[in-house]
Amino acid sequence: MTSSTDPAREESRPVRAEDAFDVTALATWLDRGPISEVRQFPGGASNLTYLLRMASGPELILRRPPRGTKAKGAHDMGREYRLQAGLAPYFAKVAPMVAYADESQSPLGAEFYVMERVDGVIPRKEFGFPVSEQQASDLCRAYLDTLVDLHALDVAAIPVLTELAKGEGYVERQMTGWVRRFEAARTDDTGDWSDVIGWLQAHQPADVAQCLVHNDYRFDNMVLDSADPTRIVALLDWELATVGDPLMELGNCLTYWVQPDDDEFLLALRRQPTTTPGMWTRAQLVETYLERTGYDPTPQALLFYEVFGQFRLAVIAQQIYYRYFHGQTTNEAHAGFGAAVSYLESRSRRMLDEAKP
User: Fold this and answer.
1) pTM of this prediction?
2) Which of 154, 265, 304, 336 has the fewest CB atoms within 10 Å distance of its CB?
3) What confidence tens digit (pLDDT) does each residue in 273-287 have?
4) Beta-strand pair 48-54/97-101
5) Would you tell me which CATH number, out of the four given (3.40.50.720, 3.50.50.60, 2.40.240.50, 3.90.1200.10), belongs to the domain 133-354?
């Protein structure tokens, strides 16, 4: 496969007025020469991502938090920068870091970090370029291989990971933390969720391991080789990465993995090209991952991981919708996030009902 256009150039758009900043001040701070153009990527519902076209030298990517109220501990640009910089010697699929600024030194009025743009293509809702059924299947294999490699890193041998490790109790900490975030982001139209949350709290499995988890492991956070779409050259968006339970990450992956026989609403929520002919099903993904790693969770534990993934995604969507609901952003793309939260509530409840004897 070859691509005659650069998806980063095609997908980036003029910067929204509410997300603009002083480009000259940024260029002075970076000290890499003039910035010829700044464009914004339309994704970034959590953090804002910009393309910096330089007068000379490689193009850069800037990431910063959104304006408005945010969850405590979220959008930590310094943490994301330090993690990638510290991980680079041990894991090749990390973009080169350039610079970080905290709020006290930032020319943007908010913390941010800058990295070099990795050449390649990023698959979105659709690939946007020809992919055969065999290539789609091979890409799923590469997706799984990279996930297994990530989970196999020796946490004790990587200083930046030992700093993140909190020991056993990851599942419990995740439950407590995401319930707290959910309650803090409620709006007048938020659903009940009490039965789903109650089931999750009552059925928490013990941690199976402590490893590096990316926690937002999706195709649209990957850069593929332009000449070979089955080769992953970089993994992006490390905001939520930490040391934790790998099967919790597997559940999160399943939440984003929409397949052709899913219902109409879920198909509309799809953000990855997982309905493309040749792509694996969720069942294939789980079976292959467990074969490769040797983990052997019970059916109830597998249900927990998948339902928790639904709840976690709902909290993320609710946090974004909270900002829109309270007028902290005018981005109309966020208007439908409330409906997505409601759908995930009913889908989680349906999954639990279907699992009853």
Assistant:
1) 0.90
2) 154
3) 999 999 999 999 999
4) unpaired
5) 3.90.1200.10
